[in-house]
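Annotated sample (chain length 240).
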Amino acid sequence: MDIEGTYTLQASPEDVWQSLLDRQVLLRAVPGIEHLEQLDKDTYAIAMHVKQAPLRGTYHGHITVAEQHFPYHYRLIIDGEGRQSTLSGNGVVHLSQRDSMTIIAYKGTLNLGKLGTLLPTALVKGTVKMLIQQFFTALAEHLRAKVPAQLLASEEAEDAVIVKQPTRGDILLLSPSAPPTQEVSPLMQSHTPLQSIVRWFRLGTGNPVQEAVWEARMRRIGIVSGLLLLVWIGTRLPRK
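Output written by the structure step:
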C-alpha cells in the first residue's frame, strides 16, 4: 500500500527537523503513542494504541531513521506487530524551504496484515492518512508555540544587564538602557526620567527587577508613540 502526501509548516527546515526527531515532541504529537525509547543513535522502540478501525489495537515495534541529510532528507524503516496484526513500512521524508515556511513531502509503502483476514486497502489508507494529519496538526501547534518563546528569549538576552548589589548578589535586569554584561553600581547609578516616573508611580512596587521591566516597557511605548505622532503629522501637512 502506497502512502504519500505533503504538509506545510510555518517554520524553518532546521526547526522542523529538530522537532521531527525530538522524543518529547513526538510523545506529544504522535496519535496514541504510549512509549518511545531510543535504543541507539538511529533506532527507537515504540508502542502506540490505535483507536480507529480497522487498525484498532496496540502495536509494538521499532523505527529506524536512516540516510539522514540534515535538514532536508531522511528515510524511515518501520517494523512492528499487534495482537492480531503485523506492520512494516519503508519511506522517505523530504523538507524544502519556501520563504519562511517548510514543505514536508513524504512517500513510502506500508504493509499491514491481519491473521486470517484481508484488510480493505481503501479503509486502511484512509485511517493512516487521518493519523498522519493528526500528527502534523499537533506538530504545527508545537512550532507555533515555539516561535514566540524564541523571540522573547532573544529579546530578553539582548536587553539583559547585570546590576551589582553588594548585599543581595547579582540580579539580572531586563533593561535596554545599558549594553549587555555592563556592570552598574547602585551607589553610582543616576536616575533617568523614566526611572523617576516608575518609582514615583511605584510601578515596580520597589522591586529593582520589576522597575527595570517597567522602564523598558515605557521606553518602547514612547518610541512607538513618537513614530505614530510623526505619521499623523505627515498626513496633516499640506500637499503641494
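Annotation: The first strand starts at residue 2 and ends at 9.
Annotation: The radius of gyration is 27 Å.
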